[in-house]
Each structure stands twice: as C-alpha cells, then as structure tokens.
Specification:
The chain is an alpha+beta fold. The protein has 6 helices and 14 strands. The chain has a domain of about 120 residues: 2-Layer Sandwich (D-amino Acid Aminotransferase, Chain A, domain 1).
C-alpha cells in the first residue's frame, strides 16, 4: 500500500499514520554533515537507529518521560503520535565537544562543572543558530511555561541516559533532542519527539574515548556504522559484532 508522505528530512521520512493523530516515522540510511555539504548512504543505518531509538524511548517511559513514540512497526519504521514540533533543537552537554569548543576555545573532552542546556532555532537556511531564552519567548517559538518544561525534561532525560550509557561503558558527551506539542482531550502537552540515536548523540567509549557516533563521519576517522553497531551491541540489540563494511549486523528480535 502506498503511504502518504507528509515530510522528508535529512534522516527520516514522515508518513500519514493508520489512525487520526498518528504518523509513521521511517528511518533512512542517509548521512549528512557540515550543513549538507557532505552526504552519503550507509546501508543499514536506518535499521540500527530505529531499534536504538525505540529501545531508549521505551526505557524513558519507565521514568514517566512523555514522548511521541507508540511502537516499532518493522525494521525501519515506528508508529508515533502526531505532534506540533516546537522549532528548537535542544542540546544537552556534559563534556566539551563540537561547536562548544570552537565557540569558546575549551579543550575537547573537558568535563563541564555542570550540565549545559542550549537552544538552537530550527532553520536550515540560517544553519540552526544558537538562541537565548529571550529570543524564544520574544519571537513566540515557545512560552515560558513550555520552556521551563522542556528544560526540566531535558535534564531528566540526560540524567537517565548518562547513567544508562555509563553502565555499558559509554560516555554520553552531549546529545540533541526535540520536543513537540501533543494535543489530546482539549489539553496540550509538551512531549519528547524525533529520535535518540548515534545520529543525535556524541557517544565515546568510557576508557579509550573512541567515538561511536556521527563525528566519525564528520571527521573521516573511520567507517560510520562500526560505532553504531558497537553501541547497539552493548545495548543488547545485536547478536554479533557486525562492525564491518562487508558484514551486516543481525538484530535481536523483539
């Protein structure tokens, strides 16, 4: 059956769902970097990201984090609640890396004295600029109550994920999440949306500091899926190492 596509982004496609108020989120194999200056396709990336994101959203349910995820449909697709995306990328930083080090001259890998929550306005044409709370409120991208709720949820997600990854010997350096407004029974709820995967997280081996995220692709420092497969393996989602250009991983059924 042909699905009704309503949106296509860099890494995912959204289709109209089977029931009103639902969408199907399809994970692509595309990889982009440097504001789309670099683009490639890695067979199986969408499958891994779909499974990792499903697993993490399911775990977040156990600490009552509201989110859009309903269930995984198949290897590449999830059923999600339709939400009105708040036009902010929320970045949570535990260790200095990426744009933070470039902007402020802080050494990469320096542990931060406190977790930093940053907001970026979602606009590809403007290259997603860093914005302040004052910008967000002034231009109506979110209300003060929504912003307070977003910050609180982001810090709770960070505390949970940092502990989870630490237990499997992975350091959660930083990550990007998005939020949306879920309209239900004449009420509006702020919920976690989008995905959580190595596409949106910086993940380092706790001891060796080896990168297991999209920085490998950005920096041309290895084969992208080696790290993604290793993360999935440590999460118990792979039945074999799978970390090779010539060997496809086998996902654990579930």
């Amino acid at each position: 059956m042909k699905k009704n596509k309503i949106y296509e982004g860099k890494a995912k496609i959204l289709y109209k769902g089977p029931e009103p108020g639902t969408l199907i989120q399809h994970f692509k194999d595309d990889a982009t970097a440097n504001n789309n200056e670099k683009m490639d396709v890695f067979e199986g990336k969408g499958v891994i990201n779909n499974r990792i994101s499903e697993h993490l959203f399911t775990l977040l349910s156990s600490i009552d984090i509201p989110h859009h995820f309903i269930k995984r449909l198949n290897m590449r697709e999830q059923l999600i609640n339709e939400v009105e995306i708040i036009p902010l990328e929320v970045v949570i930083r535990n260790i200095a890396a990426g744009s933070l080090t470039k902007r402020l001259g802080i050494p990469t890998g320096e542990k931060l004295n406190r977790t930093i929550v940053e907001f970026y306005y979602k606009d590809d044409a403007l290259q997603d600029p860093l914005v302040s709370e004052e910008h967000i409120i002034t231009f109506g991208w979110a209300s003060q109550n929504e912003l307070d709720e977003i910050t609180s949820l982001a810090l709770r997600v960070n505390d949970f994920l940092a502990g989870y990854f630490s237990a499997i010997k992975i350091q959660l350096v930083d990550f990007k999440i998005e939020f949306g407004r879920l309209y239900k029974n004449d009420e509006v709820y702020v919920v976690l949306a989008d995905e959580i995967s190595p596409d949106s997280c910086r993940l380092w081996d706790s001891q060796t500091k080896q990168k297991m995220d999209k920085d490998v692709y950005r920096e041309n420092s290895g084969y992208l899926l080696d790290g993604y497969n290793e993360v999935a393996k440590r999460m118990g989602l792979l039945t074999q190492n799978g970390a090779s250009k010539n060997k496809k991983p086998t996902l654990v059924k579930g």
